[in-house]
Write a structure and sequence with these properties.
The complex is a heterodimer of chains A (about 150) and B (about 240). With about 150 residues, chain A is an alpha+beta fold. Chain A folds into two domains: about 1-35; about 40-150, Nucleic acid-binding proteins (OB fold (Dihydrolipoamide Acetyltransferase, E2P), Beta Barrel). Helices cover about 35% and strands about 25% of the residues of chain A. Chain A starts with a helix and ends with a helix. Chain B has a two-stranded antiparallel ribbon. Chain B starts with 6 loop residues before the first helix and ends with a helix. Chain B is built from seven helices and two strands. Chain B is mainly α and about 240 residues long. The chains are: A alpha+beta (about 150), B mainly alpha (about 240). Chains A and B meet through helix 1, strand 6, helix 3 and helix 4 of A and helix 2 and helix 6 of B.
């Protein structure tokens, strides 16, 4: 065997081992490296009330309500398997925050199981659609919302 | 392939290919960005800020592509010992870093109006920042190996090691819950409407041509450096002999 073939085999084996190690480490980090809890994860495994966590999912259509004080809003964040976490937030909503769209809320669960958010981040989905097309795509929009939830996995 | 490994043949090719790539890249990029900024409709949710797409996505791809080029060149250098491969790897580092930084900066500017934050430590953003640091480390290592007479194999091995980060960046939005959205373009399918996709692909072509041109220009500069060094050394030696 020529020296360069030995080097090639050695480097390829080292690379396979290295990439394997990287992939295993990333896989093991799956939960730790996630930026937020999904509603179903939070329902199945609720964090301690008062512990700072993030909750991410879709804003349930029709759930957004403005409270009497004018700055507090309540809505529900939904995931798959009909999971649903009620959220309360007092402050300025991001521009992209709309019902049926993705959101990441930073805050904590209170004793009653409501998520009290200190901060809201709007999550954009992977679809880029010009405004003109928007009107005719009610069905498409529903499909997109579904795809985005899948993407949250 | 082996023919181009000859520095002389490479230089005569690069001499006319470098300006060709740079000029055509600048023209294509200017057309794509003009198209993207002036005649693309606003996005349904993001509005006008969608136009950052035409810089953000090409620079992100080329930031990752730059490291892929470093890794492949390093492999060729380590296995076949082609000196030109080591030079190609070194030449790709600075443009790769610049494109990664542009990607991070435009992403941050885009994040403020769309997400409501300049920066979050989610998987995609963090792994991209790690790529920028890897570039810095690679550049420092390559320069050190040049000056201190350390083997050029060390930056090449580092270039291969760092390649682990590339699939992690790519998969970060799929494996982990992240604020960054999942990929829009996967396996020939695109969730980007054609009115955005066409100028985007043109911008990708334009930025890639510029990238290629800069890499060739830097390779020529590095080769010229080596030649100048060799000539100086020879002259010093002759002076020694005459004295």
């Amino acid at each position: 065997m020529k020296a360069k073939h030995q080097r090639l085999i050695l480097i390829v084996l080292a690379l396979i081992a290295l990439i394997g190690a990287g992939l295993l480490a990333s896989y093991a980090l799956r939960n730790q490296a996630s930026y937020f809890y999904l509603p179903e994860q939070m329902a199945a495994n609720p964090p301690e009330p008062g512990q700072a966590v993030r909750l991410g999912g879709m804003v349930e259509p029709g759930s957004l309500e403005k409270q009497a004080d004018g700055i507090t809003v309540t809505f529900a964040v939904t995931g798959r398997e009909n999971s649903r976490i009620p959220v309360r937030f007092a402050g300025i909503l991001p521009d992209l925050f709309v019902e049926g769209s993705g959101v990441v809320a930073e805050g904590r669960l209170d004793a009653s199981g409501t998520f009290v958010a200190d901060n809201l981040l709007a999550k954009h989905d992977e679809n880029y659609v010009p405004r003109e097309l928007e009107g005719m795509s009610e069905h498409q929009a529903a499909e997109m919302a579904e795809e985005t939830t899948v993407g949250l996995e | 392939m082996h023919g181009f490994a000859n520095p002389k043949r490479f230089l005569s090719l690069a001499q006319w290919l470098t300006p060709l790539l740079l000029v055509s890249g600048l023209i294509v990029t200017a057309v794509a960005l003009f198209w993207g900024v002036t005649s693309v409709p606003p996005d349904r949710l993001m509005g006008e800020t969608v136009r950052i797409l035409f810089i953000h996505v090409p620079t992100a791809w080329l930031g990752m592509g730059g490291w892929s080029a470093i890794a492949i060149s390093s492999l060729v250098f380590l296995v076949w010992r082609h000196p030109l491969a080591a030079i190609a790897a070194r030449a790709a580092a600075v443009p790769g870093l610049v494109f990664t930084i542009i990607c991070l900066a435009t992403g941050s500017i885009w994040g403020r109006p769309t997400w409501g934050t300049w920066w979050v430590w989610d998987g995609r953003l963090t792994s991209m920042l790690v790529l920028a640091f890897l570039y810095l480390a690679y550049i420092a290592l390559a320069q050190a190996s040049d000056r201190e007479g350390v083997s050029a194999r060390i930056p090449a091995i580092f270039g291969l090691l760092g390649a682990v980060n590339i699939p992690i960046i790519n998969r970060s939005v799929v494996w982990w819950n992240s604020l960054h959205q999942p990929p829009s373009i996967t396996m020939g399918k695109s969730a980007i409407d054609a009115v955005f996709l066409q100028p985007l692909l043109l911008a990708v072509l334009g930025f890639s041509l510029i990238f290629g041109g800069v890499v060739l220009a830097r390779m020529r500069a590095l080769l010229a450096d080596i030649q100048a060094e060799a000539r100086l050394r020879r002259r010093a030696l002759e002076a020694d002999c005459n004295a």
